[in-house]
Amino acid sequence: MSTSDDLYAVADFCLIPMGTGEPSVAGYIAECQRILEKSGLKYKVCGYGTNLEGPWSEVSKAIHDCHLAVHAQGAPRIATDIRIGTRTDREIAPGTGNEAKVKRVEEILSK
Amino acid sequence: MSTSDDLYAVADFCLIPMGTGEPSVAGYIAECQRILEKSGLKYKVCGYGTNLEGPWSEVSKAIHDCHLAVHAQGAPRIATDIRIGTRTDREIAPGTGNEAKVKRVEEILSK
Amino acid sequence: MSTSDDLYAVADFCLIPMGTGEPSVAGYIAECQRILEKSGLKYKVCGYGTNLEGPWSEVSKAIHDCHLAVHAQGAPRIATDIRIGTRTDREIAPGTGNEAKVKRVEEILSK
Amino acid sequence: MSTSDDLYAVADFCLIPMGTGEPSVAGYIAECQRILEKSGLKYKVCGYGTNLEGPWSEVSKAIHDCHLAVHAQGAPRIATDIRIGTRTDREIAPGTGNEAKVKRVEEILSK
């Protein structure tokens, strides 16, 4: 799923439409979910961002396409914060990176 | 819950211990959850960060205290990314800010 | 300058006014510089954020006060991304944290 | 420089090597500058991140290649925070996006 030319990326992004004249952004974020659904990548909406993971280039393209879609909806400017991580110490089974991190923390706390 | 002197903050933070000699961070993040539990603030662990909300000064202090705890566990350096939002167009019932954002997106998508 | 109760923080923040009806944000960011100037903390405007450092509680309060000022200018909602770091392996002379990081990289590259 | 298929991106990223056993990261960041130099994109090292801009796909690839290089230097895990913005309300002359933002703020403050 990842070669040395395309690292497997575990990410989260928070997209903010600017200059829209209204403080609500839920309509734009919903549109992003439709884009992510089409991307085929594993994603999950959280309170302050959306978890997303896959080969780096595909994760990047999916976020880019969210920008395209939100611009098409009328937002003249967009600022996005992306957190993105890669590791070479072990293999991540595709689609399991973000979930596994939560599980490891829960296991430690349950002891 | 928030006065003009202390805005209500809906936030998410991702704390990264540095110089620890091991790539795993789950033990440090678990320790942060114990600190957050004591803070009395509403929080939720997500795949690439932890949702946290409350009066700005308390949210900031809770994250600061996570740094103190992770330093105490042996991490000589810490880098944290915080996303933090405030709004004055409407009241946020304490503890509902992050959840409400997810719900609004889900409502739009279910139509 | 920092005690165990208030870690010295080297930070950078990017404040984004939302729902303003205009894509430009320079006026809001200029107002933030006036707030930071009053804070007495060391700061520097960069292309995609503002470097800021000092005791954690003061850094946090300065960013909070930028939110207050930007709300007062008419922005109903604000989303800010903060990168904040602390370290216990060595002392940081007040106001030198961000500059020193750039210098060390430049020294290595000039070799 | 940017088509609807590849938005022009004004960005900043902060790369953090994890599990390295030493709190200092300057050597890794210097290596990233060498990668960015080769990319041909406009970049500038700041205190808490590196400004970078160009077509979205090239900006993304440059940051990906920094991850590859830092892994090659021995870091088993990397976490990066990327701030990335696009706009459709006006054209950005290639390489001027981040600088222009600082200038506009300075112009307002000098009045």
TrEMBL record, chains A, B, C, D:
Gene3D superfamilies, A to Z: 3.30.70.930
SUPFAM superfamilies assigned to the protein according to its UniProt record, in alphabetical order: MTH1187/YkoF-like
GO annotations of cellular component type: cytosol
Superkingdom field: Eukaryota
Domain Thiamine-binding protein: 11-105
PANTHER family: UPF0045 PROTEIN ECM15
Family (UniProt): Belongs to the UPF0045 family.
Identification of the protein by name: Thiamine-binding protein domain-containing protein
Origin species: Lentinula detonsa
